[in-house]
């Protein structure tokens, strides 16, 4: 007999996501983009030079860069980590690279085509500046024609050069790590051994950044080297380690293995992770991590800032990335007294749920969706704003109070968000849809199934699959459009006819038969 009450409740704690879209990560992207915008406007107004505690905080808004890099390491390496530990289909490198190119280049080229001739008309008359910026190789110019980190309106693109370098290096790094993790007969049947080897390799890879920084100072000063991938690899490696831990928790047998317990502990300790991040950031907002304004650091300041920023970014991203997937649903009538008590207490820790809801709410999620445009357009918008209103930078004698700087920040933020929104809907989204169309044509036809279907596994978030960063499988955290590929739900036949009572009766009868 089918129970009259069939409301569905979580059955057991779930592992962190190793695929699929996580709205809370969009919120983190928004935090990083806004932090970078704040520090850039602080530089334009000279607020980062006044020496107050608030100005020190503003000057360290470049913490957004390591957050972006950790997210990239997590999301891009995730399919390779899952393949090494659980054995899904391998990543298609050509698809991955094409998706990365269509994700990054169209909007970036639009900014270059506008900013270079408008803000640097002299250099724009020559071919070399165009080649540098269109191909994202400007970081490797040891005698640049610009001051600071790049040309006016394009200075923020130095980090995009590093990002693209990681995109190109990742397939080779992933192949080397997978070979190291899977060598030997014992590793073939021991997922824990493979995961530990992956983490060991990633740790060595990240720790090498501290050695690479020394090469920028000795035996000869080569400060341009600090803006390349090797000295900053630790930030990407931190995200890769998070990806391995998530994949390990999913691949290990049973729901209570060491990786699963670790991920749940970190996810439920979001407050403690925030305290660690805040403490490390407070230390970074002191002269020990370098002066207020962006300038050439000493060797020890560079090493200390690298370590502190790594701690901050890792402590912010890990509890969000380790948040459990939506729990599997079962009839309440089939639960025992202990599970009923668990559900009355909330079912899941409040910390991860509140954090996920806050970062995944509509405003942070939208800002995360357009965060790439915010990153691209902010310096051009700032320069245009100062030029149109005839405002002077601090290097031209401009002096602004804290209230004036806040007003300028608000105005530039509104204009930047407007430009980023237009860029997203007019450039980024059409380019992404072009990618999805191409992927659909490559995807082999799936065999049709008839009759009622039922799966014991939870369906992905929002009942939709999203295109993966690698192009390997549906699932993406980079704001990809929905593929509209529905996952059959329990009790849905191929034609889409719903029959939940039939599925529940079938399962109940099968359980009684056992």
How does this model look, in words?
The protein is an all-alpha fold and 514 residues long. The protein has one domain. It has 18 helices and four strands. Strands 1-2 form a two-stranded antiparallel sheet. The radius of gyration is 25 Å and the shape is globular. The two termini are 16 Å apart.
Protein traits:
two-stranded antiparallel ribbon; single chain; 4 strands; mainly alpha; disordered C terminus; 514 residues
Oligomer: single chain
Shape: globular
Q: How is the largest sheet built, in terms of strand order?
A: 1-2
Structural class: mainly alpha
Beta-strand percentage range: under 5%
The domain count comes to: 1
- Major pleated sheet: 2 strands, antiparallel
Q: Please give the share of residues in helix.
A: 55-70%
Task: Provide the residue-averaged pLDDT.
Answer: 80
Give the low-pLDDT segments.
Answer: 1-12, 338-348, 445-514
Tally of alpha and pi helices: 18
The total of beta strands comes to 4
End-to-end gap: 16 Å
In brief:
The chain has 514 residues and is mainly alpha-helical.
